[in-house]
Amino acid sequence: QNMSFDFTSSFLFLPLFGFVIGLLVSMFGGGGGGLYVPLLTLLFNVPIQVAVATSLASIIPTTIFGAYAHRKQGNVNVPIGLIFGVTGIIGTLIGVYFSTLIPSFILRKLFGIIAILIVIPVLFRKKKKENIHSDNLDDLKIINLKKVSISSLFGLLSGIMAGLFGVSGTAPVIAGLYMLRFPANMVIGTSVFVLIFNAISGLFGHLAVGHINFILIILLGGSAAIGALIGPHLLKK
């Protein structure tokens, strides 16, 4: 599939979409990749590999600003986040490598299947939330083999998803953090922090294989960053 495509006046709507997505993901966790890729491929007819790379680039400002705001509110567990993040980098590079081998039409179908599967942990999330209380915050500071194993496995899965589909890999991170019995606000804050690693490593991977369009990145990523800064303040209220 040809990596070039025509720019139209409809691209001027991208900053609006970026702002709304940035606002939403910084309030509810994630990086927005699950929204950016369908938006770019379905509405703007962008080739999927370019959409994946643009998505990862747009996730970077969203996650950095979102994580900074959540960190100030004490919602980020840095040691656990780093374990997820480092294994996520390895997974992302594996995902980017496979994205160069898989044809576009198969990648689109795989993305559709993954998008459906992502919904499943969301359906079971509420039940888990009710069992988690903030009084176990001291337990969260203890790092043991079980925590390292869960964080590493879900971090790796998250990275592979990010590299292949540009979806930031939120679902495995959130599932892993709930398995570690994190309270909801810390799940959101820590997941946003973890996704910085996926997005940066994924972007550099796609840059190396030539899937980058800088105009799309500026239009979508810049406005997403503004939304991400405002989101945590709205969440607090």
Structure, explained:
- With 237 residues, this protein is an all-alpha fold.
- It has helices at residues 14-28, 33-43, 48-72, 78-101, 104-123, 125-130, 137-140, 145-165, 170-179, 184-208, 214-236.
- Helix 9 (170-179) runs antiparallel to helix 10.
- The longest helix has 25 residues, at 48-72.
- The N and C termini lie far apart (47 Å).
- The model is unreliable at 128-132 (pLDDT under 50).
Mean of pLDDT? 81
Low-confidence runs of at least 5 consecutive residues? 128-132
Describe the sheet with the most strands: none
Q: Please trace the helix and strand order, writing H or E for each element.
A: HHHHHHHHHHH
Contiguous helical run count:
11
Terminal-residue CA separation: 47 Å
SSE class = mainly alpha
Q: Which characteristics define this entry?
A:
78% helix, 237 residues, mainly alpha
Summarize the structure.
Helix content is 78%, strand content 0%.
Topology at a glance:
Layout: H1 14-28, H2 33-43, H3 48-72, H4 78-101, H5 104-123, H6 125-130, H7 137-140, H8 145-165, H9 170-179, H10 184-208, H11 214-236
Helix pairs in contact: 1-3, 1-11, 2-3, 3-8, 3-10, 3-11, 4-8, 4-10, 8-9, 8-10, 9-10
